[in-house]
Amino acid sequence: MSGRGGRATLVAVAVVLAWLVIGGVSGPYAGRLSEVATNDNAAFLPTDAEATRAQDLAGEFVDRQTIPALVVYERPSGITDADRQRVSADAARFAQIPGVVTPLPPPIPSDDGQALQVVVPADDAEGEEIGAVVEQLRDITGGDRDGLTVDVSGPAGLLADLIEVFSAIDGPLLLVTLVVVLVILLIVYRSPVLWIFPLLAAGMSYALASVFVYLLADADVVKLNGQAQGILTVLVFGAGTDYALLLIARYREELHRHDRPWDAMKTAWKGAAPAIIASGGTVIVSLLCLLLSSLNSNRALGPVAAIGIAATLLVMLTFLPALLVLGGRWAFWPRRPRADQADPRAEHGIWSRVAGFVARHARPIWLSTAVVLALLTLGLTQLGATTLGQSDLFTQRTDSVDGEEVIARHYPGGTGSPATIFTTEQTARQVAQVAKDVPGVADVRPLTAGPQTGPPEENATPKVVDGRVQLDATLADPPDSDGAERTIRELRVAVHQVPGADAVVGGFTAINVDTSDAAKRDQNVIIPVVLVVIAVILALLLRALLAPLLLIATVLLSFGATLGLCALLFRHVFDFPGVDSSFPLFAFVFLVALGIDYNIFLMSRVREESVKRGTRAGVLAGLAVTGGVITSAGIVLAATFSALAVLPLVVLVELGTAVAIGVLIDTIIVRSLLVPALAYDIGPKIWWPGRLSRANGEREARGAG
């Protein structure tokens, strides 16, 4: 026996050492993900989107693709000669910045004489380095002085601010996530030792995921952006800690039944691994359904997050068990479990009482909780999915937002970021006239050949490339506003009707329009596929059809209630203008995939207990022994997603809030009350049409007799 125990220890040591070597190799990549991340919205568009085709055509009209930075100077009392001299001097220095495409057009005065605007085209090939270009622009302007305010805005200014926000992922977000997990583990385990094991395993999972994501992004197999990077961080630590809690709880139970930690771990692994694998598999498959998206950004998030969960599963089912075996009973100090054959339910007094409450009031419980959740779904009328404007993207003031507001006060909103229209040379004049007649279009000018030293005349000779010309349409509204998007839709309808024009409309606003349309299409395609996939996995795991359908129904009800509650909070508490068009799909994938996890943890244990005790007794036993660990896991996951709030982006704050609230609703209401009460009330038929429904039915009928 001692020889067997010695071999088990050697195996555990070998596994731990192997993982430490892997961690040493992969660890540095966790801090290098930002090097291969990109935040260019246009690159994420579908290849068949009109804005994408327009972008391809635009590349034929210029030697280098550019993204404009708009430097705007404002003096409410009126621009002075000294101000003009300062602007001219600044513009001369702008032209010297590496990455700026020269010559620069002359400063554009506002009609009211209170502002000057300099359009600084930055080389689009600079990619993430555009942030450095904008930083130099801001250094040159030196900020506000003597009553003259200066802001750097436009698409390049917005991109620079986004890059700065996402730079916090490698530092503050990771640190906050670690601290949150550490605090909760200390509270859950009340041990100065045990928290080390799941946290170390979660860190190993993140390192392993990072190396694969880095290599794939560096090889351009996947597109990694800041949003996906942030979600990867919280998902790995949140889900990893969940799986660790479940395994450790089962290991603790088995230590009461076995003398040796190795035997306890073998039994615990066999009991917990199927649920953990099914849970992780459900999340992975659900995330991979994002590959059906028409948006490259969504397609990137799916594999990136799925890699994170796959790495987490591998680590939690190999590295963590080996650590726990080496730790033995002392890892649980000061509450070390003894091999006393104690009933697991004896350690869960609170949840045993909850189980008793469910048994006495099953039908009123599931009916009342279902009604409460259904009432919360009424808040969905306040959701108002839209494309957030530039001033609505951030939770705090930024230079690009301030500049956008200045431009809106003194210029047509689309100045410096026009819509681009590509049409045939023969129909150019007709298309230009039709475009000018569209409400919301302030001006239409052709792109001319030669250096652009100012806006061309309306009737200037356009530059012709392969029989096509480019028209720049200045919109009356800011390019990221709802009004500008309506104008783009009307503009497309108008120019498409010109015979023989073969007109294509692109530009910054058109990208937003096509992104929003693609997001709506994705919801209609991906959500049903995710539901079917989850139903199949649950049916295979539980070997039943009725139970999976009921579980999916409860998660959908929870999802609707979460979004309804969030809609009320976003509008009336956080004062957000709405939610981004991608929010409902992301919220659905994460809430349904992660929410079904807790039902998998519960119902897989209920089924195991039902085989031994009968369905109704199995429901109560499963609830009693899993209640504490699943609730702890839910709190960990909710807290880790709440860490997204450290990034001052409305879309990530909304997603983090929604997942946190949804997970808490799932763990506290759905999994603790609604599902057990419903399963208890239905009884053995919950396993229909499996054999367990008939066997348990006969057993409970005999018991009743």
Automatic annotation (TrEMBL):
<feature type="transmembrane region" description="Helical">
    <location>
        <begin position="549"/>
        <end position="570"/>
    </location>
</feature>
<keyword id="KW-1003">Cell membrane</keyword>
<keyword id="KW-0812">Transmembrane</keyword>
<feature type="transmembrane region" description="Helical">
    <location>
        <begin position="229"/>
        <end position="251"/>
    </location>
</feature>
<dbReference type="Pfam" id="PF03176">
    <property type="entry name" value="MMPL"/>
</dbReference>
<feature type="transmembrane region" description="Helical">
    <location>
        <begin position="272"/>
        <end position="293"/>
    </location>
</feature>
<feature type="transmembrane region" description="Helical">
    <location>
        <begin position="365"/>
        <end position="385"/>
    </location>
</feature>
<feature type="domain" description="SSD">
    <location>
        <begin position="552"/>
        <end position="680"/>
    </location>
</feature>
<feature type="domain" description="SSD">
    <location>
        <begin position="231"/>
        <end position="326"/>
    </location>
</feature>
<dbReference type="GO" id="GO:0005886">
    <property type="term" value="C:plasma membrane"/>
</dbReference>
<feature type="transmembrane region" description="Helical">
    <location>
        <begin position="645"/>
        <end position="665"/>
    </location>
</feature>
<keyword id="KW-0472">Membrane</keyword>
<keyword id="KW-1133">Transmembrane helix</keyword>
<feature type="transmembrane region" description="Helical">
    <location>
        <begin position="525"/>
        <end position="542"/>
    </location>
</feature>
<comment type="similarity">
    <text>Belongs to the resistance-nodulation-cell division (RND) (TC 2.A.6) family. MmpL subfamily.</text>
</comment>
<dbReference type="InterPro" id="IPR004869">
    <property type="entry name" value="MMPL_dom"/>
</dbReference>
<feature type="transmembrane region" description="Helical">
    <location>
        <begin position="305"/>
        <end position="326"/>
    </location>
</feature>
<feature type="transmembrane region" description="Helical">
    <location>
        <begin position="171"/>
        <end position="189"/>
    </location>
</feature>
<feature type="transmembrane region" description="Helical">
    <location>
        <begin position="196"/>
        <end position="217"/>
    </location>
</feature>
<dbReference type="InterPro" id="IPR000731">
    <property type="entry name" value="SSD"/>
</dbReference>
<feature type="transmembrane region" description="Helical">
    <location>
        <begin position="614"/>
        <end position="639"/>
    </location>
</feature>
<dbReference type="InterPro" id="IPR050545">
    <property type="entry name" value="Mycobact_MmpL"/>
</dbReference>
<protein>
    <recommendedName>
        <fullName>SSD domain-containing protein</fullName>
    </recommendedName>
</protein>
<feature type="transmembrane region" description="Helical">
    <location>
        <begin position="582"/>
        <end position="602"/>
    </location>
</feature>
